[in-house]
Task: inverse folding
């Protein structure tokens, strides 16, 4: 894939910023059906571990999102648990991974 849409590029910016804010290499962002965005880095506490994508999906779900339009994962090209979390909310939402400017679609549950 050559490039993201303008709306999905905004998700990339949020994902990248979430990672940089706390000096991590991986971040994620999702957009819900109303256009609201949620971004996160990974959570790694003794009693709670979430990938960046799982954390972004959890924020969306906690805010009442019942549909996700898209998700972007920055800094890694795989996150099975995060892709599964996206599919739990919306089976058809595309999930893109961006590593070193290379864009790969890693999920769209059917």
Result:
């Amino acid at each position: 894939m050559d490039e993201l849409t303008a709306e999905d590029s905004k998700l990339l910016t949020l994902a990248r910023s979430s990672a940089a804010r706390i000096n991590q290499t991986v971040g994620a962002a999702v957009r819900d059906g109303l256009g609201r965005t949620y971004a996160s880095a990974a959570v790694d506490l003794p009693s709670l571990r979430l990938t960046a994508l799982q954390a972004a999906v959890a924020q969306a779900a906690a805010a009442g999102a019942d549909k996700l339009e898209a998700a972007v994962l920055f800094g890694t090209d795989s996150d099975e648990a995060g892709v599964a979390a996206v599919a739990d909310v919306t089976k058809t939402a595309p999930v893109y991974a961006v590593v070193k400017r290379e864009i790969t679609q890693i999920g769209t549950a059917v």
User: Anything to note?
Assistant: The beta strands are 27-32, 37-41, 43-45, 48-50, 68-74, 95-99, 102-107. The chain has one domain: 6-107. The two ends are 19 Å apart (CA to CA).
